[in-house]
Design goal:
Chain B: Keywords: Acyltransferase, PHB biosynthesis, Transferase. The complex is a heterodimer of chains A (351) and B (355). Chain A is an all-alpha fold and 351 residues long. Chain A contains twelve helices and no strands. Chain B is globular, with a radius of gyration of 22 Å. Classes of the chains: A mainly alpha (351), B alpha/beta (355).
């Protein structure tokens, strides 16, 4: 690598740092959120947050990958250097942090981010003055000890919760250890992919192309892992452990609410179930009315049709009768009255 | 042997400098854009119950189709994917073909909807919507167009109420929930769904979004936003991007009981194709479906792999079964340029041949 190349890269690093800092200052002055805070609700701010996190990860990678030191792509440009394991490992190390950062970013912003939920719950319980909660952090040490005295039930609850949290912490560590394998496997896959691009015309000629290839490699490695039996079991166990913690937290909260006369989750559920059943009953009742109405309309239509037939028959009979003067009008009126009566009669019968 | 990296330092410098410049210039564009509206094709509210709204979509011309088509969307995300923007709208394209289109907006369930079951959704809400459309048009049966989970619902509904469905179209619809490449299904197999729903109640939209992002974490949570830099100086493209972002993250919570049933009986036990599914008191036997079926799947669908959709033909009794493979993904089937050209005309042609 020439000195000129090194100069370019040094210039770039200085430029990138300067630009990044300026950009961040601009966003902060504009009232944009801190890039790694909890995503705010406004859509564009949310987008900004996610974009910033992604771009910062990308920017870090660019700086490392383009660095003039042994981890930079400069030394990798030499003939055959990219095949040397030590040089390759050093270079590829730049690719490791972004994956972990990305997954951590998704985790912390999601409902699966148990850590902040846990802290919030603990603080809320402490503020509410629930005795014994202050010792929760040490509850693990109480496990296995017999519970006794006035607070016996509470001690048992806390021991159960501490055990559940312990289970969750352990399985969560296994889950993240599994995800770490993605980086290792992904980098191996990237190395393979790079090996397939040594021919002129297939070579990577931009940093973005290299980044995109890295994403392809990591996603392939991730997909393979995520479809494995081991991942399925660890993921399921992690979700189950977290739900167990949540359930026990709810039970403790419920006890406290009951003592304070505050409506509990169980009571709300009970009401919700009743409301849902009432909705069903109401709809069923409407359906019955609708069908009954349909039947009534159908019966009326049948009666009208019958009356029309009768009317037509009586008209036909009148035509064959040798009548002088205007008796036809009288017959017609009589038929109309008769039809009305029949209809009323039928209606009153139904009632 | 050559090196795979053919990156000129000067060029790399220029590339990175260009990225920084685009960012700096583009942020101003991004800040001024605000919330992007969907296409909002004119529509009339026909029926409302709880959170649900049944809409009749109004085209500029009277429909030529004699039988209306009801779009049944999934409970996850919103039905507005079918009417996303002016030039990318399945419903507009169907109207332009002369179809008469209704759609169900399931709304946003809250705590009051925690106990809604699949029976409530299918034999309650959906059945009432179908009855209302039949009544409005004086028809015994109408067409159903089910999308994703809504396609699964449409299959169940048709099996339970065959007399009310004339033609059935399913789009990116899971039928076999246990195929080896179905990542979502794989992940829920070891989950204790009862514990999950008991602890969560309704399933928050944020959690659903987390799961979807984790299907392709780097692509969906990082690469996408890095690529966004390239369109920061293009307000039209940026608006499209923001609109899609709105749709992706504007998702409803899931009613707890319905979610429990769907995960257990469909994803875990695969009862739909085993033939032992029951919704409410009614058995669901796909063999009862003798209506013409058009089954459209996406060849690059990472949410509902083609192998999850294609088995449908083997489980229904109809002799008029058509499959259409769309070259694209789960979202591209509605919003890609190819979709605008291919999907609605194919649906219209298929329906017209059966009228």
């Amino acid at each position: 690598m020439s000195d000129q190349g090194h100069d370019f890269l040094k210039d770039y690093q200085a430029f990138a740092r300067q630009s990044w800092d300026s950009w961040m200052r601009y966003l902060q002055q504009s009232g944009a959120p801190a890039p790694f805070g909890i995503p705010p609700s406004a859509p564009n701010d949310d987008l900004l947050t996610r974009s910033l996190a992604s771009l910062k990860a990308y920017g870090s990678w660019l700086q490392q990958a383009a660095g003039a030191g042994p981890a930079g792509f400069g030394p990798m440009m030499g003939m055959g250097n990219w095949q040397q394991p030590a040089a390759m490992q050093s270079f590829l190390a730049a690719f490791t942090p972004p994956f972990a950062q990305t997954v951590a970013g998704i985790d912390s912003a999601s409902a699966f981010g148990l850590d902040h939920q846990w802290q919030s719950w603990l603080q809320a319980m402490q503020r509410a003055g629930m005795s014994g909660v202050n010792g929760m952090n040490a509850a693990g040490a109480m496990q296995g000890l017999p519970a006794f005295g006035l607070t016996r039930e509470m001690q048992l609850d806390q021991q159960a919760l501490a055990a559940a949290i312990n289970d969750y912490v352990q399985i969560n560590a296994r889950y993240h250890a599994l995800l770490q394998q993605v980086s290792t496997r992904g980098i191996a896959r990237l190395q393979e992919m790079l090996g397939q691009r040594t021919e002129p015309g297939k070579q990577l000629d931009s940093m973005k192309a290299l980044y995109d290839l890295w994403v392809d490699a990591m996603e392939e490695a991730y997909s393979e892992l995520a479809l494995s039996d081991e991942y399925r079991d660890v993921f399921g166990a992690m979700v189950n452990a977290q739900m167990q913690v949540r359930k026990l937290q709810q039970q403790q909260t419920e006890k406290m609410c009951r003592e304070l006369g505050i409506p509990t989750r169980s009571e709300v559920h009970s009401l919700g179930q009743r409301v849902q059943q009432l909705r069903r009953d109401l709809q069923a009742s409407k359906q019955r009315e609708f069908h009954a109405g349909s039947n009534e309309v159908g019966a009326l239509q049948a009666e009208i049709a019958e009356l029309k037939r009768e009317l037509a028959a009586s008209k036909a009979a009148a035509k064959v009768r040798p009548i002088a003067g205007k008796p036809e009008e009288g017959n017609g009126k009589s038929a109309a009255v008769s039809r009305t009566k029949t209809a009323r009669s039928a209606s009153s019968k139904r009632k | 042997m050559q090196t795979p990296l053919h990156i000129d330092p000067q060029q790399a410098f220029n590339e990175m400098a260009a990225l920084q410049r685009k960012l700096a210039a583009g942020m101003q564009n991004l800040r001024g854009l605000g919330e992007q509206e969907y296409a909002n094709t004119p529509r009339e509210e026909v029926y409302r119950e709880d959170k649900l709204t049944l809409w009749h979509i109004k085209g500029s011309d009277r429909p030529t189709a004699k039988v209306p088509t009801l779009i049944v969307y999934a409970l996850v995300n919103t039905v507005w994917m079918t009417d996303l923007q002016d030039d990318r709208s399945l419903v507009r394209n169907l109207l332009a073909q002369g179809e008469d289109v209704y759609l169900i907006d399931w709304g946003y369930p809250d705590g009051a909807d925690r106990w809604l079951t699949l029976d409530d959704y299918l034999n309650g809400y959906l059945d009432r919507c179908v009855d209302i459309i039949r009544q409005r048009h004086g028809l015994e049966a109408i067409n159903l167009l089910g999308i994703c989970q809504g396609g699964t619902f449409s299959l169940c509904y048709t099996a339970m109420h065959p007399e009310k469905v004339k033609n059935l179209i399913t789009m990116v619809t899971p039928v076999d929930f246990r195929t080896p490449d179905n990542m979502l299904s794989h992940w829920v197999q070891s989950m204790d769904v009862d514990l999950f729903v008991d602890a969560m109640g309704n399933i928050p939209a944020e959690l659903m979004n987390w799961v979807y992002l984790m299907l392709k974490p780097l692509r969906l949570n990082q690469q996408k936003y890095i690529s966004m830099v390239d369109i920061l100086d293009n307000p039209a493209e940026l608006k499209n991007f923001l609109r899609m972002e709105r749709w992706i993250f504007d998702s409803p919570d899931q009613a707890g009981e319905a979610f429990r049933q769907f995960i257990k009986e469909f994803f875990q036990q695969n009862k739909l194709i085993k033939g032992d599914l029951q919704i409410g008191r009614q058995p669901v036997d796909l063999g009862m479906i003798s209506q013409p079926i058009l089954n459209i799947y996406a060849t690059q669908d990472h949410l509902v792999p083609p192998d999850a959709s294609r088995p449908l033909g083997r489980h229904v009794s109809t002799t008029d079964y058509t499959e259409l493979a769309f070259k694209g993904g789960h979202i591209g089937i509605y919003v890609s340029s190819r979709a605008q050209r291919e999907v609605a005309p194919a649906i219209h042609q298929w329906l017209r041949d059966r009228t």
